[in-house]
Amino acid sequence: MTFSFLLLAGLAVLVALALLLWPLLRGPGAASMNAQAADLQRRLNTLKQAHADGLIEADDFESRRKALSEQLLALVDQPEQPRSRSAAAKISAIALALAVPPLTLWIYQTIGEPRALSFSADARPPAASSAAGNGAGAPSQEAPDLAAAADKLRERLDADPEDIEGWLLLARTYRELTNFAEARDAYKRVLDARPGDNEVTVEYAESLGLASNPRSLLGEPARLLDEVLARDPQNQRALWLSGFARTQAGEYQQALDLWEPLLAMMTDPQAQEALTGQINIARVQLGMDPLPSRQASSTAAAPAPAPSSPASAPPPSAGGGGDGIDVQISIAPTVAAQVSPNDVLFVFAKAENGPPMPLAVQRLSAGALPATIRLDDSMGMVEGMVLSSFPRIKVEARISKSGNAQAQPGDLQGSSAGLDYPATGSVSVLIDQTL
Q1: Is the distance from CB of 290 to CB of 280 less than 8 angstroms?
Q2: pTM of the predicted model, to two decimals?
Q3: How many C-beta atoms lie closer than 10 Å to residue 56's C-beta?
Q4: Helix 2-25 to helix 87-111 angle, to the nearest 10 degrees?
Q5: I need a surface site. Which of 151, 294, 374, 392 has the fewest CB within 10 A?
Q6: Which overall architecture, per CATH, does domain 144-285 show?
Q7: Helical H runs in 249-302?
């Protein structure tokens, strides 16, 4: 689609240039000869009319007619040599040839939709987060409504079901909207067409786990992840998720066998810290000493032993004491007038340095503000990704006008600073920002 668009646009610019340059560059000879011939013909017609009216004698008429005829024949036999164009015409032609293409591109970038050229499977919705209620990066005021965009894309795909790139984009869009069941089905269509695509297989496996109830990577997701690792043993995302599947099955040593090589591959300090926390949970289950934190400021204690059925119960608190955090949410007077009782309030906690996936989420009516709620490990979106998995967390609250989990322009938001967990038993969050 991009190549076709560029080809048609280029042809349109060339046609426009041709129309502009032709009058400036074509030789004037033919036009000059035609003008002289027309003038001689007009004079001859006038002469004939004057003779018919008796205004001139026959001898005078004949001599004049003969002279005009000779001039016309001479014009046809030896036409005037074309004269070169003036310097001004040449300069104008060069200026137009140089100015029109870049000016056309500038106008399109200013008032057109250049992002349409990047409509591909690799494109990600603007300001996308990894799960519901992230809100870490507020979208711009021009960010599209992802839900509406997904609906339009689905209508187009229903008419053209063979567009695999479109199905992949739809799957990823549903994933951002936390519509995991729809994402799972869309990924399945892509995977059927691309059975050996490691990236698609990993994303499909993750969506399978998120769409299940309770959420779990055991079974088919784990099998798919193993297939990817058999083809690509260093696939970092597959290693990460497969390790979680092992911990959910109580196979902590197998999780370490996956995560410890992954830790050596990582270069991002935040990702290393997040993975170190997960490794330490597994090491403690095996009676091993935890690894030291990769952040010098971290003083979190080692996690306590997990319950005997990790696949059905979340891991315990990382500090061995607290089991949740109380959050007091209030609205600033400067934005209070913008709140409607029908608005939806999302409150979520996430790792200060780690994956953007929320560790605990609550949803309630904005009409309940001010309010105090409790976030704990039972509110995690994925087994193993819970409050007690990380020593430092942040709490955010967002009032959604649309009721959509994805942040939208006009939503109201507030957040806390980084907190030690579980040392901090409560926190206050003031909603005072407009997205």
Answers
A1: yes
A2: 0.42
A3: 15
A4: 160
A5: 151
A6: Alpha Horseshoe (1.25)
A7: 252-265, 269-285
Query: Residue 375: helix, strand or coil by DSSP?
Result: strand
> How far apart, in whole angstroms, are the C-alpha atoms of residue 388 and residue 148?
36
What is the amino acid identity at position 250?
G
Helix (H, G, I), strand (E, B) or coil at 79: coil
Q: What is each CA distance from 409 to 142, 362, 403, 414, in whole angstroms?
A: 8, 21, 12, 14
Q: Express each pLDDT in 141-165 by its tens digit.
A: 333 467 888 888 888 888 888 888 8
What is the tens place of the pLDDT at every residue in 26-51?
Answer: 655 555 666 777 777 777 777 777 76
Torsion angle, alpha carbons of 37, 40, 42, 48, to 10 = -140
Cis upstream peptide for 82 (omega within 30°):
no
Domain coordinates in residue numbering, the chain: 2-111, 144-285, 325-434
More confident residue, 273 or 306: 273
Query: Which letter does DSSP use for residue 318 in this model?
Result: T
Pairing mode, if any, of strands 426-431 and 325-331? parallel
Task: Give the 3-state secondary structure percentages of the chain, helix then strand then coil, rounded to 5.
Answer: 50, 10, 35
